[in-house]
TrEMBL record:
This is Two-component system WalR/WalK regulatory protein YycH. The lineage of its organism: Bacteria, Bacillati, Bacillota, Bacilli, Bacillales. The gene is yycH. Residues 3-423 form the Regulatory protein YycH domain. InterPro entries: YycH, YycH/YycI_2.
């Protein structure tokens, strides 16, 4: 009998505790509920996916040097690219020494010696590269940004040499302690023996046989203005609506603003009064940018860190570029153009805090309505096209890419050659 009474008393105490908790949380006199209900905010539907920064830190391409002025190039997500990069991520690099880049003929080294070269485009901060490669901490170059990594067997093939090139273009760092053997490099070079041959010309590579890609038409969806407002404003109900003469729509809560270009399916969010949260560190800025996108719209596909650059004072810009791929051919960047902004997510930052955010409202549903095999120009035909561009400015790089456009069916991705010029322009060859 006593046990029964104890059980009843215990159950009553638990029930009273639950009732008291309810009133404390939801019914505090003279104040709003502590916990917001779904009706207080616009319910945000699932948008893009969350991603880890490490997933976006990969080379734009891997060049393989076969010796005797023979080369080939592997692109992201292709089988040999993944195999080479995964192996290198497990190797250790230490004992750095610094040299002036002009002291060595790098073109001759790449032409004569067997080796591999990871290219990172505009540069990868060392602090981020350490997240995907086993690079020992070293004050000598920890504040650097790396544009490429060259690994090759020495003349008598009894030593592997590893060089990290500064994106500033003036210095190079040699890792004198790297756990790579001559045989390791030979095995990776062997992957390129039967692949498309390339010729090294003034620092970039021209294929001697056609490069194959898949022209694709993708079905799409569109993030709504309500979704973006709900994602970017703590209380969208207090935003004011302004319609500009150019047709764009602006939503503002007096501190932040969201500009929506309906004709281009593009948004530009600004928060100029955002308080600074730290120092202007490129690596931390990228990590903060990834976290911000994870929380405010997510990622609608595969992205790569394209650019991280100071824009003056405490300001910093971070750009992520979208990639699209089809099976064995690899993945290629989607080129953002002024007439149709798609393929890039751009963040403006001040001391680690996001003050600007630009992205497309378009996303792929994963379904396609067209797929066609395409062969890009190569050899002498491509050389003739490049020769015309050289009259405008020196060519910095050449790579396969996708040109996006909209049709009634959805998003069209057309394979092209993208040519980056020294004057900063990007030209497209069809």
């Amino acid at each position: 009998m006593k046990e029964r009474v104890k059980s009843l008393m215990l159950a009553l105490l638990v029930l009273c505790s639950l009732v008291q908790s309810y009133f404390l949380i939801y019914r505090l006199p003279g104040s709003d509920p502590v916990v917001k209900t779904e009706s207080d905010y616009i319910k945000t539907e699932n948008m893009g996916q969350s991603a880890e920064a490490e997933d976006m830190l990969f080379p734009s391409q891997i060049a393989v040097h076969l010796g005797e002025d023979r080369h080939t190039v592997f692109y992201p997500d292709s089988a040999f690219y993944n195999l080479i990069y995964s192996r290198l991520k497990g190797r250790q690099f230490d004992g750095f020494q610094r040299y002036g880049v002009e002291n060595i003929n790098w073109t001759e080294i790449r032409s004569r010696h067997t080796g591999i070269e990871l290219q990172f485009g505009d540069g990868m901060p060392v602090a981020l590269l350490q997240k995907v490669m086993q690079i020992a901490p070293d004050p000598l170059f920890e504040g650097e940004s790396i544009s490429r990594v060259l690994i090759y067997n020495s003349e008598n093939e009894d030593q592997v040499r590893v060089f990290f090139f500064s994106s500033q273009g003036d210095v190079v760092y040699e890792a004198t302690k790297a756990d790579l053997t001559v045989q390791d490099v030979r095995q990776q070079v062997d992957f390129g023996k039967d692949w498309v041959p390339y010729t090294l010309v003034n620092g970039y590579y021209i294929p001697e046989k056609p490069v194959r890609m898949v022209e694709t038409g993708l079905e799409i969806g569109l993030f709504s203005t309500d979704q973006m407002q709900s994602s970017l404003f703590s209380d969208p109900s207090i935003t004011r609506y302004i319609r500009e003469k150019d047709g764009s729509e602006i939503y503002t809560d007096s501190k932040r603003s969201l500009q929506v270009r309906q004709d281009r399916d593009w948004i530009n969010y600004t928060d100029p009064a955002a308080p600074a949260a730290g120092e202007n560190n490129p690596g931390r800025n990228v990590l903060s940018g990834v976290d911000f996108v994870n929380q405010h719209g997510g990622w609608n596909g595969q992205y790569r860190l394209k650019k991280t650059a100071d824009t003056g004072g405490e300001e910093h810009t971070v750009v992520f570029q979208q990639y699209y791929g089809e099976g064995q051919f690899g993945a290629f960047p989607i080129i953002d153009i002024s007439s149709f902004h798609y393929g890039e997510i751009t963040l403006e930052m001040r001391m680690g805090t996001i003050t600007g955010y630009e992205r497309s409202l378009i996303y792929s549903t994963g379904e396609f309505w067209e797929k066609t095999m395409v062969e890009l120009s190569s050899g002498d035909e491509l050389r003739e096209q490049l020769a015309r561009l050289e009259k405008e400015s020196e060519i910095v790089s050449l790579y396969p890419a996708y040109l996006p456009s909209l049709s009634k069916e959805g998003l069209q991705l057309k394979p092209i050659w993208a040519v980056e010029l020294k004057n900063g322009a990007t030209r497209m060859l069809f």
